[in-house]
């Protein structure tokens, strides 16, 4: 029986990063994965393929909508969906092949099959295509099995016309009318993909704001901008059903006034969140305790009630984000090795990869108000940015929240061009507990989108913004 210091179950961003860090620290490491390729949801049917399609469709949208103003003349512009999907698949393959290479480089044993507990120190790996299961012995286990799309019990998803995000990544035609249930990150990203290609898109959201977990100013601005590419929003609507007849899908919902809304389309994407995935782990055999919403119960060190068994990423509390899982994977590996790592959960940014992009980190303005904390606000619109004017990306703003007494930056919320990258400046500043004045006095290259961060900090510091 093979013996390991650490065995990781699940090869998504949390799992493979944990395995690599364990190997770097000199621990004999195994990684169990039930699917043919490594990388989990993120690399195979999540973060990476969705960004590939978002980039492809943004190119098409610009060619269709803005190239003429740039002085670029095109004729017979068309969408080749087969090529677009094939390119996306190529991007995915390159990434998952890269993870396989990293496993070999770090001398990590990859065990293919479904991993489950025999007891706290023994795991069974059953081949997914039949055959005999093997057993291994391990001192520590890191559970990193991720999540799956949440299913609405009153909607039958056939995965052909009533689909999840997984199927939405492989539609080889432009829908005539895509109905999206859920105005969160996944729903809006896929809505953007197909709206840019010319599909009619309707988004039905239960709350009265899109991206409702982020600063409300971001959702309000994003709704306005996405409306310009034709996306229709039905906020405060409770979906009551979705049925298919042939190629037609009918979605029904109750409006805020209690009336019935009926929408007909050819595709319906159900994107109402994700749920922890722990099926088949046989956690009972190891005595691992669970908590609400199907999550695994862990302590401050991400260790379960069973010593030596840890859990990270989407199966534990907190935001379901790939980079959160990566930080936790590193944290647990270093904890097992006897180090003293830390993760600052307040400073894990959230990002929406629409265009313009959206990101936030730290406290929202709504949270500061609820806490009764005295704060000040600095805003800077991209319409006042020379770099944004040059690229015709003038929608959006940067919003900085700072402590009224100390000037420490408490939250940064952005919507605009290249925000997914720009939010890192805010995270860096806040990790070092910078004040708005500190960032305002840092030199930012001109002309850049990042100048908007400096200007917002100037605005928060005695209203000193230069360009507004």
How would you characterize this protein structure?
This is Dihydrolipoyl dehydrogenase. It catalyses: N(6)-[(R)-dihydrolipoyl]-L-lysyl-[protein] + NAD(+) = N(6)-[(R)-lipoyl]-L-lysyl-[protein] + NADH + H(+). The active site is at residue 446. There is one protein chain. The protein has 468 residues and is an alpha/beta fold. The protein has 3 domains: 2-148 and 275-344, FAD/NAD(P)-binding domain, CATH 3.50.50; 162-272, FAD/NAD(P)-binding domain (3-Layer(bba) Sandwich); 356-460, Enolase-like, domain 1, CATH 3.30.390. Helices cover 33% and strands 26% of the residues. The strands form 5 sheets. Strands 1, 2, 3, 4, 5, 6 and 17 form a 7-stranded mixed sheet that branches. The chain has a 5-stranded parallel sheet with strand order 8-15-9-10-11. α1 (13-24) packs parallel to α10 (322-336), α3 (47-65) packs antiparallel against α5 (81-105) and α3 packs parallel to α7. The longest helix is centred in the first third of the chain and has 25 residues, at 81-105.
């Amino acid at each position: 029986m093979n013996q390991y210091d650490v065995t990781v179950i699940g090869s998504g961003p949390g799992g493979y990063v944990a395995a690599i860090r364990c190997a770097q620290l000199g621990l004999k490491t195994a990684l169990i994965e039930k699917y043919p390729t490594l990388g989990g949801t993120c690399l195979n049917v999540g973060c990476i393929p969705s960004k590939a399609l978002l980039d492809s469709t943004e190119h098409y949208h610009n060619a269709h909508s803005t190239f003429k103003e740039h002085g670029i003349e095109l004729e017979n512009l068309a969408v080749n969906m087969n090529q677009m999907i094939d390119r996306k698949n190529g991007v995915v393959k390159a990434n998952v092949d890269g993870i396989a290479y990293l496993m070999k480089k770090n001398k990590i044993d990859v065990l293919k099959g479904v991993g489950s507990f025999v007891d706290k120190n023994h795991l069974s790996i059953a081949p997914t295509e039949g055959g005999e299961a093997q057993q291994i012995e391990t001192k520590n286990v890191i559970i990193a099995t991720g999540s799956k799309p949440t299913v609405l019990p009153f909607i039958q998803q056939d995965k052909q016309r009533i689909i999840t995000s997984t199927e939405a990544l492989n539609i080889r035609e432009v829908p005539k009318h895509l109905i999206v249930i859920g105005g969160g990150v996944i729903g809006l990203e896929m809505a953007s993909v197909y709206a840019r290609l010319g599909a009619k898109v309707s988004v039905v959201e239960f709350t009265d704001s899109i991206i409702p977990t982020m600063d409300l100013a971001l959702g309000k601005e994003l709704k306005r901008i996405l409306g310009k590419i034709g996306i229709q929003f039905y906020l405060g609507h409770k979906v009551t059903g979705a049925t298919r007849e042939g190629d037609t899908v009918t979605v029904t919902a109750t409006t805020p006034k209690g009336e019935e809304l009926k929408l007909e389309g050819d595709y319906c994407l159900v994107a109402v969140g994700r749920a922890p995935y722990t099926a088949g782990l046989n956690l009972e055999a190891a005595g691992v305790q669970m908590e609400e919403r199907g999550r695994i119960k862990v302590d401050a060190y991400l260790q379960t009630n069973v010593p030596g068994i840890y859990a990270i990423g989407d199966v534990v509390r907190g935001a379901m984000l790939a980079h959160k899982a990566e930080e936790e994977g590193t944290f647990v590996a270093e904890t097992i090795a006897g180090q003293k790592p830390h993760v600052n959960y307040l400073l894990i940014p959230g990002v929406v990869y629409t265009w313009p992009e959206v990101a936030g980190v730290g406290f929202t303005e709504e949270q500061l108000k609820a806490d009764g904390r005295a704060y000040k606000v600095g805003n800077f619109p991209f319409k006042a940015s020379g770099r944004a004017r040059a690229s015709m990306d003038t929608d959006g703003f940067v919003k900085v929240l700072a402590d009224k007494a100390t000037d420490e930056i408490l939250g940064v919320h952005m919507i605009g061009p290249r925000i997914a990258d720009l939010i890192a400046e805010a995270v860096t500043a806040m990790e070092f507990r910078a004040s708005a004045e500190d960032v305002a006095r840092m030199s930012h290259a001109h002309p850049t989108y990042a100048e908007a961060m400096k200007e917002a900090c100037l605005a928060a510091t005695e209203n000193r913004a230069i360009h507004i």
